[in-house]
Here is the input.
Amino acid sequence: MHLHPTKLLLHSMLKLRDLKSGESAIIQSIEDSDLFLKLMEMGCVPGEKIKVEKIAPFGDPISILVAGYTLSLRLTEADAIFVERLEISPQSIEIQ
Here is the structure.
């Protein structure tokens, strides 16, 4: 089975904190000017693909995969990151 990245579907914009474990998204914007530089230095740049790896039992912090490494974010930080959720379309799966 192969996935074709060009056939991924983008859905409406939401906050990173609203994604569930295992979901992927593309960063669209960072809305907290005080946090902007810190997040950019950690690889959270607009256009970057991220994946939610883990969510702590009480929901804070969350662990994401970004730019090839795992990053933990507080919910207040994830609340400032707007993303577009990625979903795999049925046509993007090729069974061999």
Remarks:
- Confidence is low (pLDDT under 50) at residues 1-8, 90-96.
- The first helix runs from residue 33 to 41.
- The domain at 2-94 is CATH 2.30.30.90 (SH3 type barrels.).
- Helices lie at 33-41, 75-78.
